[in-house]
What does this fold into?
Amino acid sequence: MILDDGYGAERHESPDRRSEFSPKLTKLVEALREKIDCPQSFDDFVDLVAARIDPEERIELTRLLQEELQNPFRCSERARQCGVTLSVLAKPPRENTPTGDFFDAFEVPDRRFSIFIGDAVGHDTQTAWDNSARFNLYTREPNFIERAFPHGVTAQKVLEYIDQYCNFRGTPGLDAVVASHVLLDPQTGEFSFANAGNTPYLGIIRATGELEFLRACGGPLGHPELFEYLQSEPNCIHGKLEHGDVAIMASDGLFDGVHISGQKMSDSFREVLEDLLGKSVTPQQVLAHVYSHLRSTKDDLVICAFGLSPSTGIR
It folds into this structure.
């Protein structure tokens, strides 16, 4: 099956990404599917799992998903194979608990690389974890890209999909939810970037010594009534990374936000990144530098920094 992604490139069916599950997690997922009596429908499984299994099983499922699917090393290795250097920090809200914030990175069928990050706010900690688990389960359904985006995947469409299928609506405090998505072509360095929510920015430290911040807005997650307010905002931005450039984004914690439009950005974070200008830095070094300057926080947090692998041949 070949689909047109709207950019003139052919896209082939994506593999079943559940093959990435460990045997232990696969066994638990299949057992839960049998318990809720929907062995033929993975979508139904995701929709019902939080309501139909007992709390201990739900916690165990979420814990395993967090360990398996948001494993920074695994995502970094997947990126390396695609020509992307990726460094990820997933900070839990307290010891021995998973972070409820979203993170995933994978190759889409047209050879672009997808990086998604978001703040999984919920009524309580478990709801936030469930939101994170729902997203990660959805992206591992066979042919997820083709089913969810029959007319081609774009960064903005991913955010709309997440807003529709994750349990954000009716959740208090959604003005603090951040979701960002990058589609990067490692062969050309070209990328598209979309985001939603409060203070969503992509920071880029250029190898030329410049600092750049990008923000696009597709509407606050869970607040469709505010979309009209932001209609004048671009819902997707296109750019290009060169060798030596490092981009960085986070689920929360890096920016001071006081308004849903995200117009106030932390001057302190800009100053932290300015410390690195004019230096040859890797994503790992940028991530470590930023994290060392964060204010103490009890909240969970995901930060990722990425760039092009030195061996990537930009066209």
